[in-house]
């Protein structure tokens, strides 16, 4: 990431960023809130 520090994303980088952001948002939306709050902070993220 240091190689791109201070410059804007190129078209390919922007497209990849948007795809990753959409995938992350969908994954977070599928995660039940209860399981996150009941899980200790040190516990692994596996179900």
Description:
The protein is mainly α and 47 residues long. The chain contains 2 helices and no strands. It has helices at residues 11-30, 33-38. The radius of gyration is 16 Å and the shape is elongated. The model has no long low-confidence stretch (mean pLDDT 78).
Low-confidence stretches: none
Order of helices and strands: HH
Please tally the β strands and state the result.
0
Number of helices: 2
Give the N-to-C terminal Cα separation.
31 Å
Q: Work out the strand percent.
A: under 5%
* CA-atom Rg in angstroms: 16 Å
The structure class reads: mainly alpha
User: Would you tell me the overall average pLDDT?
Assistant: 78
Shape by Cα distribution: elongated
Helix content: 55-70%
What does the main sheet amount to? none
